[in-house]
Amino acid sequence: MSAFPFLTNCDKCQGCTYDCCLNRNNCGVTHIFNNLTKDELRSIMDNKRQIKFRAGETITKQNTPLTHIICIRSGYAKVVSEGPKGKNLIVDIIKDNNIFTGGGTIIDDTHHFTVAALTDIECCFIETSKIFTVLSVNSVFTLDLLKLYNGQHIKMHKTLINLIHKYMPGRVADTLLYLKNEIYLSNPYQFILSKQELADMSGMTKESFIRNLKEFEDSGIINHTRNTINILKEEDLIEISKNG
Predict the structure, then answer these.
(1) Which of 25, 70, 146, 237 pairs with 105 at a CA distance of 20 to 30 A?
(2) In sequence order, which residues have a C-beta less than 8 Å from that of residue 131 and are 6 or more positions away?
(3) Residues 189-225: tens digit of each pLDDT
């Protein structure tokens, strides 16, 4: 029985083969599923569940059992490392066409991060037990999943290293550049995060983040309105990021 009995079957994936939400035409990184045989894909499809979350809802909770990996079909979510005394650090933003493994897949079956919806989210939950069955017989799929997992780990590790070794201006610059170049892919861009969440991405207090943002604006590097960032001098921002 599914660990999520309240979930409904993914209607769009009933009776499908490769033309579904796990196909690379629909999911940016889920091309790893294209290395499955039709029978292997079917074994995953038959147990996949689709669920929608509203903005602000928790998708997975840190330190809870990990029974599913998540395929984000549409929307944005934040990956949060919950620290002591309520101090949280946003280590990544995931968006449509991405898979999140939870951090403990294959290792200890534990969610090492909390994932919360920033916007309305539509995602598919794939049982890890079904994934493990396929891993035992399909070495190509195993390698692809390990590459995905390691890529997520390296990305978060680099984020933590930058937060440890950079001064506040460098951290704010990293956050602004990351949102422009990897999340919104536009300039200017409208951000959906609160100032507190932007501060949590930068490893600082809300007041410190706002102060550094104001300094960037006073220097003519960015233009900032309530929910829009326009990077005017990206080369200057990159230089600040490099120098830390």
Answers:
(1) 25
(2) 44, 69, 105, 145
(3) 998 999 999 999 999 999 999 999 999 999 999 999 9
